[in-house]
Amino acid sequence: MPIVAVVLVSAVLVTVVAVAVYLVSGGVSRRVAWQEQARVIFWDGERPEGQEPDR
Amino acid sequence: MTADGLPASLEERVALRIAGDRSVRQVVMLFFGSALFWLLIGSLLGLVTSLKFEWPDLWTGTAWLTFGRIRPAHLNTMAYGWSSLAGLGAAVWLVARLTGTPLLHERLALASVVLWNVAVGAGTIAILAGRSSGMEWLEFPRWAGVILAIAGAPVGLSLLAMVRRRTLSHMYVSLWYLVGAVFWFPLLYIMANAPLWRGVDQAAMNWWYGHNVLGFWFTSISLGTIYYLIPKIIGRPIYSYQLSLLGFWGLAFFYSLVGVHHLVGGPLPDWLISLSVVASVLMIIPVVAVGYNHHMTAFRHLGALRWSPTLRFIVFGAVSYTLVSLQGSLEALQFFNRIVHFTHYTVAHAHFGLYAFVAMVLFGAVYYIVPRVAEREWPYPGLILAHFWLSVTGFAVYFIGLSIGGWRQGVAMLDASRPFLDSVTVTLPYLASRSVAAVILVVAHLIFIGHFSLVAMRRGPVRATPALLGEIPMGARDA
Distance from B37 to chain A by nearest Cα, in Å? Predict the structure, then answer.
């Protein structure tokens, strides 16, 4: 019985927290954030592995 | 100049990147070189530990070679020697790349290399001399722990200075994990070593630390590395910013509560045990978020596994992270824990995390970073391939054998109609498989260390092109 209670409480918490965090993080525009990340990773002009002409 | 302060022309940005890689060369190579030294020591200690299950009387006449000393020496050299030093080396390079800033305060970083190695060396010798504290993951005597805690500070300050003066304003997800690790590790280590805990409190603190050091130190550095290297190798940004937020904050919120599940059945309040079990289940959220994010990023680009040495190790590590974390949540549940607790099953699980996940990611990071900072390609792609397959095979033999053996051990221990000795004899063939796996892993590591030494000493054939594991099909170029 305690195991069932723990699993049920966990499931409820999982759902509540997941929804809350998703809603909070949704304030950041996905498109803008995606472009930001792309710029931060690829600013240095390095090509995908094995295709770098200047390494 | 761009709004970020970066040069507008591609040529100048490439030059800036190369200058950044050169700025970290000495520090990164020293971190990696000393990490590989501890990998060798730790692997040999692990092999001897395993052999002692086969031949319990092996070297029992020599005090420092007895099981009670060799086994914690293996754990500490692999955790604080190999994994931590390799992780710090990767972190220095990653922060320089992600901030667009060359290494700042190089002497501080070099001081960390020296102090950290002194701490691990002194702590390991103390363990072998019988001066272990007796607490798992915290076996270094307190004076060695103090050196270790101090050792992390200089490189931490160097990394934080680079983040503070970063050229690129946006902080990529890898930086969140790396900055988190810089703060979390000293906090954990100092709190756990503080002379405040006695009795049951000490046990609870021991496992609060023992599990958190995995989540907030090794996992943070490894996930930060994965988040950078997968997009870099395949040339595609991470799939979802929201999922990366969910993964990071989920880890930060839930992971700190999970450690006490190691004490299920122990003399602790029920609420504390239940809380740790609930938190362990809650960890499914960030784990699935991270796993899904990685998978969707690499999806349709997994062809690069055919030629990219780094991606093989990184993807193996990333998939292992998801699987070992889900397994960990399962193991925390009491019906499962009752069987596997105090068995070799838990040992297999620990190696799933620290080897198949953390070590494989760090291997991948070393293969990616070293040619860039040393400006010399890996001379023999065949050795990388051999290292990968020996590591995978060694781990598989280890994990499968000990998981089955540990399960059978647990079932035998719970059966009151069987003598306790049954729970020992039933494991013997599986313990033999572990020794076979240990030999395979030692060979894999010797190949890796030898190959690294060639690059570090600038020996072996000079390659004009990157060492790849296969030809890149024409259609995959410029993907």
Answer: 28
Interface test with B, best of A7, A36, A49, A55 (most B CBs within 10 A): A49
Chain A residues in contact with B23 by the CB 8 A cut-off are: none
* B332 and chain A in contact, CB less than 8 A: no
Its pTM stands at 0.93
DSSP code per residue over B239-264: S-HHHHHHHHHHHHHHGGG-GGGGGT
Instruction: Give me the residue spans of the domains in chain B.
Output: 1-170, 325-474
Confirm if B100 and B168 have CB atoms less than 8 A apart.
Answer: yes
B275 part of contact set with chain A, CB < 8 Å: no
Q: Which residues of B touch A9 (CB under 8 A)?
A: 278
Sign, Cα dihedral of B137, B139, B143, B144: negative
Q: In Å, how far is A4's CA from the nearest CA of chain B?
A: 10
Residues of B with Cβ-Cβ distance to A50 under 8 angstroms: 307-308, 466, 468, 472
| Closest approach of A19 to chain B, Cα-based (Å) | 10
Quick: pLDDT tens for B424-477: 999 999 999 999 999 999 999 999 999 999 999 999 999 988 999 988 877 665
The interface pTM score, or ipTM, of the predicted complex is 0.82
pLDDT per residue over B132-171, tens digit each? 999 999 999 999 999 999 999 999 999 999 999 999 888 8
Long-range pairs for B120-123 at CB < 8 Å and ≥24 separation?
B120/B38, B120/B76, B120/B77, B120/B80, B120/B81, B120/B85, B120/B148, B122/B147, B123/B76, B123/B80, B123/B147, B123/B148
Q: How many residues does chain A have?
A: 55
CATH class name, domain B1-170: mainly alpha
> Are residues A34 and B100, on separate chains, in Cβ contact within 8 Å?
no
